[in-house]
């Protein structure tokens, strides 16, 4: 265990307390036989010693960031060491200035003690489909000295071809963009890969999309204190042959800067998730810059945030304006789009404090056959009201405009067109005719409840239209489809991999849905659909006059059983909003909030 000093001379001089203040970080992956007993230990130890901060516990271990008097922190460490669960734990203790009761301390959770039992010590992914990798397969630990030595050797010995860049070695930063802005490892002959992610749970997707940059290489991973590399390195190694040589900096950047106070190969400052904000080397170098004027700047204490995604941004004192009207580089890069997932409910202590910046889900709503956006919005008013704290529902018209029809038995002359709203469809029958000049046609027969079985055309046009919607109005976290809209949404789910980058979403809600022809083709090609889905339909045959119960049940059967949730109700062709159905809908959506 080492105790380090942090902050400038002014900060050290400001410590006027009789006892110095400090911050303690540690984590431990281990099997916890009795979580309740561990909760009691932390409640007793932290409260009696006056420690504040965050404690996250699970059956897989602990993740702790707390602050208090140095003597109290040392006493807590001694108590933890007496428990065999903490054998081999790296307790990282640093002395620093006492936290002020300001916005920074509140955001970082250092004005109270938060002890929570969680499923994962770090939220590796928000996708219910992606299981956390086996932590026992994590990359080999390299001490700060070993890590430095590898980089030093690469600097002195270029690759065998004599080129200046060592092609066999890459550095991978496992941290978020707002951290890498102000500090990162740099070596002349080694490429540093910065995923530029908003949050840690975005890293698996980046790894999947950039696996070729890692395959066959010696991958040196690093993060603030080490915990994020444990899970991420295990995930990389789980990809099999070519990914075995993945290593991680033990103790993270914090231990490296203790070993190499002048910075070594680390440039800038180490972002930390407590009131200190960042910790630099003795060089006091600045690599960050103001978002607006591009002048050198790396101070996050103003807590400026992007107005779209709420990520921290660097804005110098001269450029700061009231109202926080800033847009980060990632939102600019993606044309102002906010991220698909901002899960702050269970972020690691190392990577996120308790935060109230969570945003609502954005759900694109697809209406049924011969409906329109305004009508569907009205029919789902109760649903929108009950989901108002979770989701924003966005409604659009389908691209195929339909003829108005009327029954001759009811009237001999149709009403004026101005009195009717246009009706649309996602899928149409092979004999589909565009609206005539009069806009009206006489119904050929009485209502046919099985007409949807003949609506097999128009998918390509609707798909192209949805690509435009996602580009201009997106992004969206999920798609909600009703009746034919559900059939369309399900077909899009079936093509989710091919549509990556054009139509990106994380889940679908299919209400009174049925299987469309494009989806049947997809089923034959690749089997079950692996998109998290919620299926809502009537349980009693005959209750839903438009879509038979079996058709909706068959649609649910096309989705992977591990990610499909079914809600059956005893009503008709509606989306139920009474309890317990609305509670089940909320439970599904809350997985993605």
Automatic annotation (TrEMBL):
Gene3D superfamilies reported in the protein's UniProt record: 3.30.70.100, alpha/beta hydrolase, Rhodanese-like domain
Organism: Raphanus sativus (Radish)
Protein name from the UniProt record: Rhodanese-like domain-containing protein 6 isoform X1
Pfam families: FSH1, Rhodanese_C, UPF0176_N
GN (gene name): LOC108807927
Tree of life domain: Eukaryota
Domain Rhodanese: residue ranges: 165-265
Upper classification of the organism: Eukaryota, Viridiplantae, Streptophyta, Embryophyta, Tracheophyta
PROSITE patterns: RHODANESE_3
SMART domains per the UniProt record, alphabetical: RHOD (SM00450)
């Amino acid at each position: 265990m080492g105790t380090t000093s942090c902050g400038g001379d002014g900060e050290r001089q400001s410590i006027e307390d009789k006892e110095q203040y400090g911050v303690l970080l540690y984590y431990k992956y281990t099997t916890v036989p009795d979580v309740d007993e561990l909760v009691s230990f932390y409640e007793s130890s932290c409260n009696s010693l006056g420690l504040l901060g965050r404690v996250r516990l699970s059956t897989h271990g602990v993740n702790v960031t707390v602050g208090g008097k140095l003597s109290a922190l040392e006493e807590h460490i001694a108590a933890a060491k007496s428990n065999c669960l903490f054998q081999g734990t790296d307790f990282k203790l640093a002395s620093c200035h006492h936290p002020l009761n300001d916005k920074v301390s509140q955001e970082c959770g250092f004005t109270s003690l938060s002890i929570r039992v969680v499923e994962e010590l770090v939220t590796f992914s928000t996708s219910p489909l992606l299981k956390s990798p086996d932590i026992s397969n994590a990359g080999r630990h390299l001490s700060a000295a070993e890590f430095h030595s590898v980089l030093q050797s690469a600097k002195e010995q270029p690759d065998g071809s004599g080129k200046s860049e060592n092609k066999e070695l890459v550095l991978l930063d496992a941290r978020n963009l707002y951290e890498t802005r102000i500090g990162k490892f740099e070596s002349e002959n080694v490429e540093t890969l910065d995923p530029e992610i908003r949050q840690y749970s975005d890293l698996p997707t980046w790894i999947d999309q950039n696996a070729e940059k890692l395959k066959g290489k010696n991958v040196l991973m690093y993060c603030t204190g080490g915990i994020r590399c444990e899970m991420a390195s295990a995930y990389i190694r789980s990809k099999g042959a070519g990914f075995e040589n993945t290593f991680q900096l033990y103790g993270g950047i914090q231990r490296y800067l203790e070993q190499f106070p002048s910075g070594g190969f680390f440039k800038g400052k180490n972002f930390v998730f407590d009131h200190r904000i960042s910790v630099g080397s003795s060089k006091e170098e600045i690599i960050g810059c103001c978002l607006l004027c591009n002048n050198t700047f790396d101070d996050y204490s103003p807590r400026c945030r992007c107005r779209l995604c709420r990520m921290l941004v660097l804005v110098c004192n001269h450029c700061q304006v009231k109202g926080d009207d800033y847009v980060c580089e990632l939102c600019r890069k993606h044309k102002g789009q906010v991220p698909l997932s901002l899960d702050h409910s269970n972020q690691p202590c190392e990577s996120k404090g308790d935060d109230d910046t969570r945003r609502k889900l954005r759900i694109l709503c697809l209406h049924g056959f011969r409906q329109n956006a305004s009508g569907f919005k009205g029919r789902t008013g109760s649903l929108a009201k009950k989901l108002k704290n979770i989701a924003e529902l966005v409604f659009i018209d389908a691209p195929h405009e339909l003829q108005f029809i009327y029954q001759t038995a009811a009237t001999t002359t149709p009403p004026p067109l101005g009195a009717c709203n246009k009706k649309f469809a996602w899928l149409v029958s092979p004999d589909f005719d565009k609206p005539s000049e009069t806009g009206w046609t006489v119904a050929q027969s009485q209502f046919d409840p099985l007409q949807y079985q003949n609506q097999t055309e128009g998918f390509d046009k609707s798909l192209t239209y949805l690509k435009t919607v996602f580009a201009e109005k997106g992004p969206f976290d999920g798609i909600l489809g009703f009746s034919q809209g559900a059939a369309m949404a399900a077909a899009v789910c079936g093509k989710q991999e091919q549509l990556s980058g054009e139509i990106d979403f994380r889940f679908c809600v299919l209400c009174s849905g049925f299987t469309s022809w494009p989806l049947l083709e997809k089923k034959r090609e690749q089997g079950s659909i692996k998109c998290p889905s919620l299926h809502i339909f009537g349980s009693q045959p005959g209750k839903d006059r438009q879509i038979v119960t079996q058709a909706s049940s068959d649609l649910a059967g096309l989705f992977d059983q591990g990610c499909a949730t079914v809600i059956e109700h005893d009503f008709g062709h509606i989306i139920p909003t009474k309890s317990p159905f609305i509670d089940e809908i909320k439970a599904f959506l809350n997985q993605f909030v």
